[in-house]
Amino acid sequence: MTILSFFSRASRSFNGYPACSKLLVLCTLSSGGLVAYSESQTDVSNTSVEINAKDCKKRRVVVLGTGWAGISFLKDVDVSAYDVQVISPRNYFAFTPLLPSVTCGTVEARSIVEPVRNIIKKRNGEIKFFEAECIKIDAANKKILCRSTFDNNLVGNEEFSLEYDYLVIAVGAQVNTFNTPGVVENCHFLKEVEDAQKIRRSVIDCFEKAVLPGLSEEEQRINLHFVIVGGGPTGVEFAAELHDYVQEDLVNLYPTVKDLVKITVIQSGDHILNMFDERISSFAEQKFSRDGIEVQTGCRVISVSDKEITMKLKSKEEICSIPHGLVVWSTGVETRPVVKDFMGQIGQGSRRVLATDEWLRVKGCADVYALGDCATINQRKVMEDIAAIFKAADKDNSGALTVKEFQDVVDDILERYPQVEHYLKSKHLSDVTDLLKDPEGNARDEVDIGGFKLALSHVDSQMKNLPATAQVAAQQGAYLSKCFNHRQQCEDNPEGPRRFKGSGRHQFHPFRYKHLGQFAPLGGEQTAAELPGDWVSIGHSTQWLWYSVYASKQVSWRTRVLVVSDWTRRFIFGRDSSRI
């Protein structure tokens, strides 16, 4: 059998194969450390909606976006119960955590994207997809206005509208420039696949320009000065990828300028990776120092021109400028214009991010949901409902709450207000009833309303917004699809916590984010990771864990095979420096 016929047969075998269950275990031993990772995913065919679609017209669900949140929702929602339609200006899903790898050719762009139509084809073709951009949400009339994104002169209308019964907004966010002059015109971003491809071409341009005859050494140094603004995970990973690309591949191709390359990371805070554990942040800074990557902390960029970047040193209140060959801007995200306009319609115009409740429902707008980077959950405070909680728990209306009465509502409190559990962990309290103890730590038989308020007065200090990560978006999409699938069932038998203000129970359990850990590749086949249970793992073994997790998380077997083959190709042949 020839190699070509083998891969042809393998392609037919994998095509449309349902990833019903996956189990991936990696055990690596490095410096006495053992790391294991496992994942299991249930088959979406087990989900069901108890609604007879034949007896009633399907309600239309319009999904905006094909990112992590949108695709996660589409993969699990029961299409036999809803008329699902998808709007997105991109007809593919991109595995965004690997974008830094695309910038240097470690992974090819097409290896991390999966066509949307391939994904919805697995749902028996009952999902309709339209490649267009939503430019207006008409909340009053439950309608959206869309515009096609094709540049050629094809016939037909460019704009069209769609009505919806339910709207799922999952459009993500755009790069936040903080209105810094010159950023849009002179910086590269790293948010989309096209951004990574553009950076890859520009890096090669810098080297090719530097080796042209007639340039002085100073001009060569400027062309080969790569500046990354932002010391978060994306900026740090790109700096590490670029360093590996230069040291492992480009120095051999451009030996005359190998000593003139410089990489600088500019961070406004005191440390890079400040959202990670302090040990990881410290290790990253030390490794970058050893690798020759300059890290400038406490610097705020105030303008960027085509030749230099101007910044203010916070410690000295001085303004300085440095020349550059290429600048990558990676400083966070902000709300897209279509979402900002929608926020103005529903009374959220003064907010920076679209607000939802704990069930991902947009506040101030019925039947509209928002997931992922475009929204934030506005968690209700315990102190806003403290009187209602006390009244619900005080069954005998005695004006005092016993420990037994408090225990009867504890489960509902913990589910409705997750900050209570976070507070208990931060104070190392083993049981929620420990909150009712007196200031000296002695147990009390009962407390009045004043003592109850005092016991829970500091709980809301543990409220935190969820990070804008792929992990959060994917979990939100899976959660919302489950709510849609059980909507009819939960209308008759609510499954959520008790309504402390009002009667009955909430229809669904509120969304709870489960942190599964996060990675920070640092180059040189070393990665740092925060794992569940407050574990920190750093080194070569964690790099292999990173390979395993990212391979298993691919959306299809096709992309999984392509990504692994790209990694293998890089180990054997190095990265491709062609400018195409």
Structure, described:
The protein has 18 helices and 28 strands. The chain is α/β, with parallel strands linked by helices and 580 residues long. It has 3 domains: 57-176 and 333-379 and 465-514, FAD/NAD(P)-binding domain (3-Layer(bba) Sandwich); 187-331 and 517-573, FAD/NAD(P)-binding domain; 382-461, Recoverin, domain 1 (Orthogonal Bundle), CATH 1.10.238. The strands form 9 sheets. Strands 9-8-7-4-3-10-22 form a 7-stranded mixed sheet. A hairpin with a 3-residue loop joins strand 27 (526-531) and strand 28. Helix 2 (68-76) runs parallel beside helix 15, helix 6 (193-210) runs antiparallel to helix 7 (217-223) and helix 11 (386-393) packs across helix 12. It is globular. The model is unreliable at 1-8 and 10-55 (pLDDT under 50).
